[in-house]
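Dear Dr. L.,

I hope this message finds you well. Following up on our conversation about the binding site, I have prepared a predicted three-dimensional model of the protein together with zinc ion. For your records, I am including the exact sequence and ligand specification that went into the calculation, followed by the structure tokens. Please feel free to forward this to your student if that is useful.
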Amino acid sequence: MTGLLGAGRVLLLGTLASILCAANASAQAKPLAGADVPTIYERLLKQIDRIPIYDNHSHATFPDDSDMDAMAAPPDESSVLRLSETNPEFVAAAKSLFGYPYDDFKPEHAKWLIDKKKAAEAAGGTAYWDSILDKLNIETCLANRVALAPYLDPKRFHWVFFVDSFLFPFDNHEQVAKNGDMGVYIPLQEKVLQHYMKQESVSALPVDLAGYESFVRQTLAYNQKKGGVAIKFEAAYFRSLFFRDPPREKAEAIYAKYHAGGVPTEEDYRTFQDYVFRVLIDQAGKLNLPVHFHSAVGIGDFFSLRNGNPLNLENVVRDPRYSRVKFVLIHGGYPYTLDMIWMTAPKNVYTDSSLMGYYVYPSELKNILKQWISLFPEKIMFGSDAFPFNDAVGAEETFWLASRSARTAVAAALAELVSEGAFSEEKALELARMYLHDNAAKLYGAKP
Ligand SMILES: [Zn+2]
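The resulting structure of the complex is given below.
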């Protein structure tokens, strides 16, 4: 408590209190919202709909493009209720975006939508995806992909590239054999590593760790030159997000032992990964590339909640050596959303509402945003996690679902806070702009 309410904070709180008192003598917030919430909500939503969105995380893509992600869904994974194919909201999305004339996705109906999208893909050019963003008032969108696609306009879609593959350069037979999910994920990581080696004209793994490190550093620099604006770890799907800090000599010995063959022990592989992870963080800091982490529940029946808990990253994001590295913990840490907002307390840590924004309905997203806004409103961003679920329900419909959910949820959260006397409607709109656009624009725009 003493740490939090240090002299500076007390002074700041005192100043804030006197400003608030000057504005309104009876301005203490009330615990109950009033009957005016629906009218405040309608007024705010009208304004919030006009705010252009900066989308912190999406997989803008046609469904048959294998570059959409560095991993794939494992077979027979369980799905949350809202993402079931029978969710009527997806029909509403298709009607709103394309004038879809049917009320379900029966195969003979879905064909209408699939044909339309296939025709857009065949036509080529960047106009189609720009038009989807325009319809939803999304100005800029980060596209998390293996490579940027020719059909995405680089002015609107900024590339976030994957780096987990650098953690898996050795014989991965034991990794693959761990469970069905890893059997799907790891061969794809090997493919991405091959892709990067080809790109950097590296025909075989370098003979020593120094060579491997420079391959890693070069790839990041080259991808940034091609338009990359951030790096992304999906590591929570493959291992614990707790990264130790082994000395270089240990990693050097492990690399020497396995680079030309042989299956590493679990401990050796993990030590090597812990080291290379830090090379990646260090290089991202040098290049001023923000570092994205999947930090939430994940798909697949073997995803470990404990290993994926974003609190595992605390030793990294609060490490003074990385104080200039920008960490973006995407998906809000869901379900650990309250832990997550406190993870963003350091100046260089951010989060977004991607994924969870379409896992839960807007009424629950409202509750999460209300808490986040009350704590660190300058650290939260919108993210769609737009992704194609099948040939009919595509990234287009998930862009729609995520953006409608976020606009309505943030309007509702702010309407309650205004009604409770927390702040004015004017301040509410400023906070909405920060969440939907300004925080992300500032984060990615502030290049040296
Ligand atoms: Zn995603």
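In brief: The first strand starts at residue 53 and ends at 58.

With kind regards,
A. P.
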